[in-house]
Write a structure and sequence with these properties.
The structure holds 2 protein chains of 2 kinds. Chain A is an all-alpha fold. Chain A has 2 domains: 58 residues, Helix Hairpins, CATH 1.10.287.70; 210 residues, Four Helix Bundle (Hemerythrin (Met), subunit A), CATH 1.20.120.80. Chain A has 8 helices and no strands. Chain A is globular, with a radius of gyration of 23 Å. The termini of chain A are far apart. In chain A, 37% of the residues are buried. The longest helix of chain B has 36 residues. Chain B is globular, with a radius of gyration of 23 Å. The chains are: A mainly alpha, B mainly alpha.
């Protein structure tokens, strides 16, 4: 630690947190009402999301202003870096729970349903993967790996490369390269999402593969769905970074926000590689 | 200290809102810490009322006070409220108040996010407690929310799921804040191995929180989709497995147990050296023991599941891994006792609670070892023996340590000494009634009384009567604590900057009460 410390920035009192809490209360209460068809749940959820978006705009906007007016010392910058790292670790653990579930059903629970006492209960059930379990009647076709998913893998890997190229642009002060790289990355992200939507429609229409298609459908849609949600968040954040780059924010020395979003994007990329291998391919 | 007088002038900013808005918008770690502590005490009382209703029903065999359905809601909500509403937020309150003071930081690393971490809790509590009043009532699946019960419950279950999500967000943000504060905001010269042990235990706890709260979020999300969107995670007919829920839940749940006890170890490690007037024995081994408990906590989850048909090899692994945790825990107990060895001891209330903790928590540790033995646990699963065990570690462990810490730092927080006589009465009532309540439960469990059932065989009547009397005694004793705190806030003998002769650490270098802003310029630690 350096001997001389600048004063650490402690923000003024803020109203944004309470807006966020109100938003989540509305979403939680409204969501429970909606699911149980009580009262006007959807409206509460809608108001909640609107409040949340207002809060996020306001809060992040304020952080950007504070950053641009030079309120953040090197030490604050370091705090941000630590926190983003730990946040991504928490996201890793969230996905780990679902990957663990996939491992468990493929290695333990589905084979066990066809063994021993369960075999008597579920006569004629075969151990194989993909499986919808012994009691889901409707047949479905599993999703193959070498069509859209393989293309999507290429797209996401390329988007990682374009993002790094944008970063190089930022580091050597070539703003054009930075902006071009970001535009390409966002575009690739959006194409990925478009193909993912197309794949879902295809699954429902042509393959009869649904969220309700037993455990295969459950794990397939939940894992790829949460991943898709994270790509959406990542692409949104990249778009914000792009807008800020166009406005002239960030310097070669100080651009934590760019790096944080880049870390996040690479994290989403790596999750996809695991998904491609254990959900689509093997 | 110049840093202090400087901060006194800054105590009242021009833009500092007053009244309610001060508390809603505050970014001050002391304000937020106080709110955490008050919130957790309110939740502690709510959970306590539920516990007393449970004990009133169990006062005698037969159904007298509540219906079985409502009884199940009470046991479920008592657990959820105490774990997520009382114990965890109380420790975060201590972390907020003490960590910046102990490491010489001006505030938490992310002061605005700190505010949000707290203010997410009241909405979550509202959803959780509000679920009592929706059609079908609160969830009655047990605090562990096991499938398939949790897949079948009514709207109360959905509210609980969303409440758990919100509390999870709060915990993760709070934990990230604590990790970053400790890693990045220590005063110059405060190396990690010079840090007070309370900060160490919280650093490791926060790491555990970041690692497992997302897993809980995943578990309850799967419950939600199984309930409403037709997934089959916990449904064997679709190829899933209800036992899978238990695996995911306890992968969160066992580290969660240490999340609730490690900060307690930290508090006790501050209090015992102070009143033994000796430095903590084996500081480095305490740090390593804490870290090994945290790492081992990820490898023991299935000891909660010995009766689910685990393969023998699995049972053996989880049994031995669990018993291994007794080693670092033993190191800790040894070190606390060795700290007191030949110390000049005095027994003010904080010390009483810490010594009391040592006795009763260690008993809970021993019954934990007994439960770890798979063949025994198969007999004891879901009996009152388990209830006795985890109340010995959670009430006599976590809660007593919280009381110890509260008495220890009250003079620093309020600027007044608390009423020592009342504090001592609070301690003796608590420890006596605690044992009257929970000690007989060991016998009930060994004799086979199942938990979470509102009625029981008349042969269990005597011990249940005893436990219920103890529970009411324990419950009302906590009002003494409320009285002590209120009295202490309102006035009393002025506390010196360092009210405890043997205390060490940066928090005692600032005046009592601690000024609104402290260590705006970091102190230098030698």
């Amino acid at each position: 630690m350096s001997a001389v410390l600048e004063k650490y920035f402690v923000p003024e009192p803020s109203r944004f947190p309470i807006y966020g809490s109100a938003a989540l209360l509305l979403i939680g209460a409204g969501g429970a009402m909606w699911l149980n068809r009580v009262g006007s749940g959807p409206w509460l959820v809608a108001i909640g999301f609107a409040t949340l978006i207002y809060m996020l705009f306001g809060w992040f906007g304020q952080v950007v202003r504070e950053s641009e007016t030079g309120k953040y010392s090197q030490q604050v910058d370091k705090s941000f870096r630590w926190s983003m790292g730990w946040f991504i670790f928490s996201e890793v653990m969230f996905f780990a729970a679902f990957f663990g579930v996939l491992f468990y059903v493929r290695v333990l629970s589905v084979p066990e349903l066809a063994d021993g006492a369960s075999a008597m209960l579920w006569d004629g059930f075969e151990k194989k993967w993909p499986s919808a379990g012994p009691y889901v009647e409707e047949a479905f076709t599993p999703m193959g790996a070498w069509g859209i998913p393989a293309i999507n893998t290429l797209i996401l890997l390329s988007s990682g490369a374009t993002l790094t190229w944008a970063h190089w642009g930022l580091l050597k002060g070539a703003r054009g390269q930075l902006i071009k790289g970001l535009v390409l990355t966002v575009l690739l992200g959006v194409i990925f999402l478009g193909l993912q939507v197309y794949e879902y429609v295809h699954a429902y229409d042509a393959l009869n593969l649904r969220l309700t298609s037993g455990i295969y459908g459950s794990t397939f849609f939940m894992l790829t769905g949460f991943h898709g949600m994270h790509v959406t968040i990542g692409a949104t954040m990249l778009a914000v970074i792009l807008a800020r780059s166009i406005k002239g924010h960030f310097t070669a020395e100080r651009h934590f926000a760019f790096e944080a979003v880049a870390w996040y994007w690479h994290f989403v990329d790596v999750v996809w590689l695991f998904l491609f291998i254990v959900v689509y391919w093997l | 200290m110049s840093a202090v007088s400087h901060s006194l002038e800054h105590g009242h900013h021009a833009h500092q809102p007053s009244g309610l808005m001060r508390w809603i918008t505050t970014t001050n770690h002391k304000d937020i810490g106080s709110m955490y502590l008050i919130f957790s005490f309110i939740m502690f009382l709510s959970g306590g009322v539920m516990a007393l209703t449970i004990r009133a029903e169990l006062f005698a065999p037969g159904l007298q006070v509540v219906q079985p359905e409502f009884f199940n809601q009470l046991t479920t909500m008592h657990g959820l409220v105490m774990v997520f509403g009382a114990i965890m937020p109380a420790f975060v309150g201590f972390a907020n108040w003490q960590i910046p003071l102990m490491i010489g930081a001006s505030d938490m690393a992310f002061a605005r996010m700190n505010n949000w971490s707290f203010w997410l809790l009241p909405p979550a509590a509202l959803l959780l407690l509000g679920s009592f009043f929706v059609p079908g009532g609160a969830t009655a699946a047990g605090w562990t929310l096991y499938a398939p019960l949790s897949v079948q419950m009514g709207m109360g279950m959905d509210l609980t799921i969303f409440a758990v999500h919100i509390m999870g967000i709060s915990s993760i943000m709070g934990a990230i804040n604590i990790v970053v504060t400790i890693l990045n905001m220590r005063a110059p010269g405060m190396t990690l191995m010079k840090m007070p042990l309370f900060c160490w235990t919280w650093l490791i706890t926060a790491y555990l929180l970041i690692a497992v709260m997302p897993v809980l979020a995943g578990a309850v999300t799967m419950i939600l989709t199984d309930r409403h969107f037709g997934t089959s995670f916990f449904n064997a007919a679709g190829g899933g497995d209800p036992v899978l829920y238990q695996h995911v839940f306890w992968f969160f749940g066992h580290p969660e147990v240490y999340i609730m006890i490690l900060p307690a170890f930290g508090i006790v490690s501050q209090v015992i050296p102070t009143f033994a007037r000796k430095p903590l024995f084996g500081y480095a081994s305490m740090v390593y023991a804490t870290a090994s408990i945290a790492i081992l906590s990820f490898t023991v989850w299935a000891h909660h599941m010995f009766t689910t048909g685990l393969p023998a090899a699995g049972q053996l692994f989880f049994m031995y891994a669990t018993m291994l945790i007794a080693v670092p825990t033993g190191v800790k107990v040894f070190n606390w006792v060795a700290t007191m060895w030949r110390g000049s001891m005095t027994f003010e209330t904080p010390m009483l609670f810490s010594v009391g903790f040592l006795f009763v928590f260690t008993m809970g540790g021993f019954t934990g070892l007994i439960c770890a033995i798979a063949p025994i646990d198969i007999q004891l699963q879901d009996t009152y023996y388990v209830v006795a065990h985890f109340h010995y570690v959670l009430v006599a462990g976590s809660l007593f340590a919280l009381f110890s810490g509260a008495y220890y730092w009250l003079p620093k927080w309020t600027g007044h000494m608390y009423d020592e006589k009342l504090g001592k009465i609070h301690f003796w009532c608590s420890i006596v009634f605690f044992n009257i309540t929970f000690f007989p439960m060991h016998f009930l469990g060994l004799a086979g009384m199942p938990r979470r059932i509102p009625d029981y065989n008349p042969m269990f009547a005597d011990f249940n009567l005893m436990a219920s009397i103890g529970a009411f005694g324990f419950g009302f004793s906590q009002l003494i604590f409320l009285a002590v705190v209120v009295k202490c806030i309102r006035g009393g003998e002025r506390a010196a900057a360092k009210p405890w002769e043997g205390a060490e650490g940066l928090e005692w270098t600032v005046p009592s009460p601690a000024p609104y802003h402290t260590f705006e310029e970091p102190p230098v630690v030698k």
